[in-house]
Design a protein that fits this description.
2 helices; 63 residues; elongated; mainly alpha; 0% strand
Length: 63
């Protein structure tokens, strides 16, 4: 993996962390259960994506 690709991966992880924070903060301020459920589903998807990206980065770090 090139340095440029590693930087892209780190950037993508940072974006996922930001989205996770935004979703968590928004959920805390909502009262509508439909919106809360929707955002909780989105949150889980972004957490999964972040973990996959972090695993890729860890694999490359251990090579």
């Amino acid at each position: 993996m090139t340095q440029k690709e590693l930087l892209y991966l780190e950037d993508a992880i940072g974006h996922e962390k930001n989205i996770i924070t935004i979703c968590e903060d928004t959920i805390k301020n909502l009262e509508n259960q439909n919106l809360i459920s929707f955002l909780q589903n989105e949150l889980e998807g972004h957490k999964t994506t972040k973990e996959k990206l972090m695993n890729m980065l860890e694999v490359k770090a251990n090579e």
